Amino acid sequence: MGTTYARVTVTPVGSTKRFTGDFLVNTGATDSVLPREKAAELGIQSEGSMRYEMADGRRIAFEYGFARFEVLGRTAAGKIIFGPEGCEPLLGVTILESAALRVNRVTKKLEKLPAALLK
């Protein structure tokens, strides 16, 4: 299918600290991922942990918190997983849908939907 990246700014809820970077857009992942050390630098608090099934079938528990995401001029808030140190940041489908964004299957680029779905 190809690889799609998006420039994303993550801000902890109630804070002015921010991290901006290129996130791999992963439409097969429910939640978004930030390396644990970046989440700690931002001061994102752990709200719990959840088990996730990896592409290879393994099930691993990861801590998560909540943050704001800015992508293509749109903002959404949601769960962010504290990934392994140095891992690649991932943008999951929950934030994409919340911000009314999609991956164009032809151009492989992220694009804005004309309206969010509410049906």
Outline of the structure:
This protein is mainly beta and 119 residues long. The protein contains two helices and nine strands. The protein has one domain (5-112): Cathepsin D, subunit A, domain 1, CATH 2.40.70.10.
Report what the structure shows.
- This protein is mainly beta.
- It has a single domain (5-112), classed as Acid Proteases (Cathepsin D, subunit A, domain 1), CATH 2.40.70.
- 11% of the residues lie in helices and 49% in strands.
- The chain contains two helices and nine strands, in the order E-E-E-H-E-E-E-E-H-E-E.
- The protein has helices at 36-42, 93-98; strands at residues 5-12, 19-26, 32-35, 48-53, 59-71, 74-83, 90-92, 101-103, 110-112.
- The strands form two sheets. Strands 1, 2, 3, 4, 5, 6 and 7 form a seven-stranded mixed β-sheet that branches. A two-stranded antiparallel sheet has the order 8-9.
- The radius of gyration is 14 Å and the shape is globular.
